[in-house]
Design brief:
The protein contains one helix and 38 strands. It is mainly β.
Length: 371
């Protein structure tokens, strides 16, 4: 088995300290559009050094190895490795807080449009909730945009795990109380996160996840993909698995009125599309609230409680296949009357009623099943 090269670089100004000071070479490769190709470590010793030297539109190629560094990007660049098993951006021992006050391995900000491909972003971190916990693997904020493809984001946790609020999210997009981000995530593996796989936060923030896998931590309470506080997006042809409550989580359980549930996908914004996904082994497969969320043609298996939970709104669910769990579909009313239409939804092998309503506080929940 080949041993990954670990690059360790001491920097002073723009030079690397060896026996003599050797300054980075100026790249000579340029495309017809004027963009340049910068190579790490040939032309620059670290990814951050290449980003700092890059002009908008430049391309940064990272050779095989493990780069132990934080990377902050505030300009339009692309960064490409040699494959997610060969090129890794690894969390360093000490992390410096970014624009949101959290610690991220890669931060994209200042309205930049950034492409990351054929590489891995990996923890773990070594902080605690009181001091330096790992906030996210990749952070997108300040109106920035990420295109993440053929990549991996993994081991986004602290050692030992520090269960802090909004901590250890693999890809975290947008910010509160104001501020947005956007992302396209394609053909990417997101695994081993401590909090959530993908969080898209705030009105104006968007994300598309397609042909990707999002796999939770088997010993920690996690959520797969969240579109919350007005964020909108699409999840298609992806596999989301192993997100749920883990002992001893004191507020987690199957009671929709008094406990908290973890889900493969959670969303609360009209226009969100959840189609043609495989959703396996989560506490709740899909958990949505509101109106105008498109749920169709998903295969949902082995949810520990409910395949699809529909709360406080009006919903149409089309042609999903749900297997296992206590209930296939739960229709829940806690703040408004809730109506759900299930068109061609096939539910099998549940231990309780295939479709169950839950009502509270004078509101009604109604489910209409159509062939």
């Amino acid at each position: 088995m080949a041993i990954p090269l670990i690059r360790t670089v001491a920097r002073l100004g723009l030079c690397v300290l060896t026996a003599i000071a050797v300054c980075p070479l100026v790249p000579t490769s340029a495309a017809a559009d004027g963009s340049r190709a910068l190579v790490v470590p040939k032309d620059y010793p670290t990814i951050q050094a290449a980003v700092d030297a890059a002009r908008p539109g430049d391309r940064i190629a990272v050779r095989p190895g493990v780069d132990r560094e934080q990377v902050v990007i505030g300009k339009d660049v692309s960064i490409t490795g040699w494959g997610d098993r060969k090129t890794t951006i690894q969390a360093p021992q000490m992390l410096t807080p970014g624009d949101d006050g959290g610690n991220s391995i890669v931060e994209i900000r200042n309205g930049a449009s950034v492409s990351l491909s054929r590489l891995a972003v990996s923890g773990p971190g070594s902080g605690t909730c009181d001091n330096g916990a790992l906030g996210s693997g990749i952070r997108v904020l300040g109106g920035a945009r990420l295109d993440l493809a053929h990549a991996a984001v993994t081991h986004i946790t602290d050692t030992p795990a520090a269960p802090c609020f909004r901590s250890a999210t693999a890809v975290f997009i947008g910010e509160m109380p104001n501020g947005t981000g956007s992302a396209t995530i394609r053909d990417t593996k997101i695994t081993g996160y401590q909090g959530a796989g993908v969080v898209v936060l705030n009105e104006g923030s968007t994300a598309t996840v397609e042909h990707s896998t999002v796999t939770g931590h088997r010993t920690l309470s996690t959520d797969g993909i969240e579109f919350v506080a007005g964020a909108v997006g699409r999840v298609t042809r992806s596999t989301i698995s192993d997100n749920g409550c883990r002992e001893p989580d004191p507020v987690c359980g199957p009671d929709f009125f008094n406990e908290f549930q973890h889900a493969g996908i959670a969303a609360d914004t009209p226009g969100t599309v959840l189609q043609h996904n495989r959703i396996v082994g989560n506490q709740v497969g899909i958990y949505v609230a509101g109106v105008g969320i498109d749920i169709a043609h998903n295969a949902i298996q082995r949810s520990s409680y409910v395949g699809i939970a529909l709360q406080d709104g009006s919903f149409t669910v089309r042609r999903d296949r749900i297997q296992g769990g206590v209930h296939g579909v739960a229709v829940i009313a806690t703040e408004v009357d809730t109506n759900a239409v299930l068109e061609g939804v096939k539910i099998t092998r549940t231990s309780g009623a295939p479709v169950q309503t839950f009502e509270c506080c004078g509101f009604t929940a109604t489910a209409t099943v159509k062939p």
